[in-house]
Amino acid sequence: KDDLNMLFTTKTKLYIIVLIYVDDIIIMKDDLDNITKLKHKMMNTFYITKLKDAMIYLKVELHYDKIEIHFHQKQYIDRLLERFNCTSYKLSKVPMNLKTKLQRETRTRAIVFTMYQSLVGHNTYVSQ
Fold first, then answer.
1. What is the pTM of this model?
2. How far is CA 112 from the centre of its chain?
């Protein structure tokens, strides 16, 4: 239902959205002058070290141009590829060799579940 980290108001014809996560905050409004006023009010009320355009928020990189904000996770994905030794892998529509014949093994092999679970968890985060 509601995201407890997001505050939203429409007291005027303008909107304001405030996202809070631990010690990071993002303010979104459709009016730059009102964002500046809100920043100054917050700086007078709370100890704030810096208020500037967000570059990374929850591992999502933000890039700004005059009209739009672009989001991507390239740096996060590159780190994952390095962590799991996958930097030399090539893109493929099918993630395995189609000519490989699968066979049942007669003996049990130990599987490193923690690494597998970590990889699945990171992939889930990136794909959402």
1. 0.51
2. 27
